[in-house]
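The following record pairs a protein chain with its ligand, C2E.
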Amino acid sequence: AKLMPGKNVYQYFSQEMNQRVSERLRLEQDLRSALDRGEFRLFYQPKVDLVSGEMHSMEALIRWAHPESGLVSPVRFIPIAEETGLIIPIGQWVLEEACRQNRAWQDAGFPPLRVAVNLSATQFAQPDIVDSIVAVLEKTGLDPEFLELEITESMLMEDVEDAIRILRELKGLGLSLAIDDFGTGYSSLSYLKRFPVDCIKIDQSFIAELLKNSEDAAITSAIIALAGSLNLNVTAEGVETLEHVDFLRRRGCHEIQGYYFSRPLPPEDFTRLLREGRNLYNFKSAS
Ligand code: C2E
Ligand code: MG
Ligand code: MG
Ligand code: MG
């Protein structure tokens, strides 16, 4: 198409923008009723210990089963949920459902695993965040040692002193804390030792090009070394190939998560995986 300045170009753009705005409005409208209609699902993805090959935990990831659009990715609706405040009831549902499901797997006799739940910035900033987590643990009967919360660097850097206070309270409950998407935010390394967290998760953007991009390889190695010297566990996410696994294992990464082992699975499929036992990989025979 010829791009001529003037009326037609303006109309072309405004038409496309209108379409985008109305699509987003529709999504926002639908999101308001999605909780009441029971349209959210949690999928679960194993995290695998790189020494034993065993799964000790899994991450709960939300999906929206939209009546017309099918499964909607959280990348599309979490930002809208954040802006509209809907993230509070949705986040509460996620916490409760993840704890309930994890407790149900334990009651069914499977070896106890930790379930990791992503917290959003708005949720973390709620004055009653600690109380609401206590309430969910009591309601579902899940032992806090089997719950892990994933928060991002930017959530912690908003108000560092306040964040440290909340993290301490959460740790006091007996649960675990992880910093998600590590390396993409602008957290100061000097703060890292002050945050009472158990684990850092290397962002998948560094893993994707690990074998092709020497800078990504250097950053990944540096994060693993940093975690080691601060006595933190380190998980790599977005692990897709055996080459990724070998690289990470040689550098001493503790845990990996990614399509190489399993995509995030609906609860029925995850139950099937649990039936096969928690040993997902034999590293000795692989190398
Ligand atoms: P995240 O917490 O960093 O989750 C990891 C994302 O990487 C997930 O995307 C997962 O499906 C994807 N992933 C896992 N392994 C691989 C792999 O090997 N290759 C690739 N390319 N991707 C992989 P997902 O499920 O689409 O979630 C995207 C983001 O949405 C999450 O990133 C998290 O920030 C947010 N999110 C998901 N569930 C929730 C939730 O319940 N609450 C909140 N507040 N945010 C959530
Ligand atoms: Mg996460
Ligand atoms: Mg992440
Ligand atoms: Mg992410």
